Amino acid sequence: MALHENLIGGAWVGGDPVANINPSNTDEVVGEYARGTEKDARDAVAAAKAAFPAWSRSGLMERHAILSKAADEIMARKEELGRLLAREEGKTLPEGIAEAGRAGQIFEFFAGEALRLTGETVASVRPGVGVEMTREPVGVVGLITPWNFPIAIPAWKIAPALCHGNTVVLKPAELTPGCAWALVDILKRAGLPDGVLNLVMGKGSVVGQAMLDDPDVNAISFTGSVATGKRVAAACVEHMRKVQLEMGGKNPMVVLDDADLDIAVETSVNGAFFSTGQRCTASSRLIVTQGIHDRFVDAVVARLKALSVDNALKEGTHIGPVVDQSQLEQDERYIAIGRDEDGANLAFGGERLNRETPGFYLQPALLTEATNAMRTSREEIFGPVASVIRVKDYEEALATANDTPFGLSAGICTTSLKHATHFKRNSEAGMVMVNLPTAGVDFHVPFGGRKGSSYGPREQGRYAQEFYTTVKTAYTLA
User: 392: how many CB neighbours lie within 10 A of its CB?
Assistant: First the structure.
C-alpha cells in the first residue's frame, strides 16, 4: 500500500506509516499516512515563512485561477472524495458526497472573493491629507482541524487563508488524514507555489504543539475540544499571535406546543442523530413544552426505530458508525451516566449493534425525563445521544436553552411568529434556526458561536477576512 506523505516546501516527505481504519469495517485499511515529527512541523513553518513574501504580493488573478481550478476538480471528484470521507470517518455516503461538494463550493466562493478584495479611502480631518485603509495578509497561518468534517473544515480554513495572501501549515486530525491529503494534493496540482501550503499529519501533542511553540507562526485557527482550545489560546497569547477557536456545543432545540409535530420530529432527529451526532452543532438538548411533550417523545421514538444504522457505504443507511473505539466508549459512558447517575429514563437505544462488517455501531440513544442540571445536559457527548427536557412554557424553554456554558447553535419549532421573532433576538447562540435543524449551515455566511463555543472572529463567508487579514491605515499629504 502506497504511503501518503506530508507536503513540506513543495516536496512530499515520508514518515512512519499509520493505518487509516474504516470505522464501518475495521478489517479494512483505507490507506497509510505518514506521521509527522516535530522537525517536520518546524520545517513546514520555515517553508511557509519563506514563501510568504512572494505569495502575499501575488496577483489577484493568480489566486483566483488556482482556487477556481481546485474548486473545479473537487466538484468533478465529489463522489470519489465523498466515498473516501465515508470510509475514513463513517458518515453515510450521501452525507460524504454532500460534504465534498460543500468543499468545492467554498473554494469557488473564495476564488471569487480573490477578485473582490477591497479597501477604503476617506478624507482626513486635516485639510490636504488623504487616508487609505487596506487589508493585508497576516503571515504564516497554522490550521488545526478535527475529524468530524474532514474535508469541509480544512476547506473553509485553507480557502480564505490563501485567498487573502497567507501561507499555510495544515495539521488535520490523526483519525481522518485522507480527505486533507487529497485536498492538499489537488491544490498543489492546481499550481500553488512551493511552500504556500504545507501538510503535516500526525499527533496533536507533537505536530500541533510544535506549531504552537514556533514563533514564526503568526496566527492559529483551531477547531476541536474546549480543553484543547484553551491550551491553544494560552499558547497564542504567549506569542501575541492571532487566534481563532471553534469548540464545543450543547445546542438546544426548543419545541413549543404550537409546533408542527412532523417538522419538530424531523428537525430534532436530523439535528441530534444524523452524522452519528458527531457535529458541534448537533441538537443534543430537546427542550419540549408540556402540552406536546408526550406526543413528541412517542413520535421521536417511532422515527428512531425506523432508522437504519449500518455500514456508511451501504445504500439505505441513515446513520453510520461512531468514528472509533474511544468515541464509542465515551458515548456509552455518558448513556450510563444519564441512566444510572443522572436518573434520566433511557427511552430508546444506546446498545452496540452487530452488522455484516465489524464496526463501531451504536443505536441512537434518547434520554427522557431529563433536567438541565444533569451532566448529560451540561457536557458535550459528541455522539448519537440526546436528552428530552420537559418545560412549562416558552419563557422556561428560553431560559433553559440559554442556561449552558456553550452558545454555538440553537433552534426552535413553532408556528408563532411572536415566539420565533423573540427567540431569534434573545437566544444566546451564534446561529439560530427556526423550524430547521440546528446542524446545517451555508458556506457563504458567518459560522461561529458565543460563550465557550467560539473565540475570535467568525469563520466562512466575507467575515473570514477579519481573521485572515490585518488592517493598515496609511496617510498621505496631497
Answer: 10
Overall number of domains in the chain: 2
Contact between 130 and 475 (Cβ < 8 Å): yes
Instruction: For residue 88, give the H/E element and its range.
Output: helix 78-89
Dihedrals phi, psi of 427, to nearest 5 degrees: -70, 130
Verify that 235 and 271 share a domain, yes or no: no
User: Would you name the residues annotated as active-site residues?
Assistant: 246, 280
Task: Print the domain residue range for 430.
Answer: 252-434
Residues 276 and 391 in one domain: yes
Do the Cβ atoms of 135 and 465 come closer than 8 Å? Answer: yes
Closest residue by Cα to residue 140 from 62, 226, 242: 242
Q: What are phi and psi of 257, to 5 degrees?
A: -55, -35
What is the rounded CA–CA span in Å between residue 292 and residue 48? 57
Domain CATH number, residue 65: 3.40.605.10
Considering the domain architecture, whether residues 174 and 288 belong to the same structural domain is answered as no
Which CATH number fits the domain that encloses residue 262? 3.40.309.10
Per-residue pLDDT 10s for the chain (478 aa) are: 899 999 999 999 999 999 999 999 999 999 999 999 999 999 999 999 999 999 999 999 999 999 999 999 999 999 999 999 999 999 999 999 999 999 999 999 999 999 999 999 999 999 999 999 999 999 999 999 999 999 999 999 999 999 999 999 999 999 999 999 999 999 999 999 999 999 999 999 999 999 999 999 999 999 999 999 999 999 999 999 999 999 999 999 999 999 999 999 999 999 999 999 999 999 999 999 999 999 999 999 999 999 999 999 999 999 999 999 999 999 999 999 999 999 999 999 999 999 999 999 999 999 999 999 999 999 999 999 999 999 999 999 999 999 999 999 999 999 999 999 999 999 999 999 999 999 989 999 999 999 999 999 999 999 999 999 999 999 999 8
* 28/20 Cα distance (integer angstroms): 9
Contact 324, 173 (CB under 8 A): no
Q: Are 449 and 430 in contact (CB under 8 A)?
A: yes
What is the rounded CA–CA span in Å between residue 168 and residue 189? 16
Burial of residue 134 (CB within 10 Å: 0-12, 13-18, 19+) is: middle
Clarify whether residues 240 and 285 are in a common domain. Answer: no
What one-letter code names the amino acid at 396?
A: E
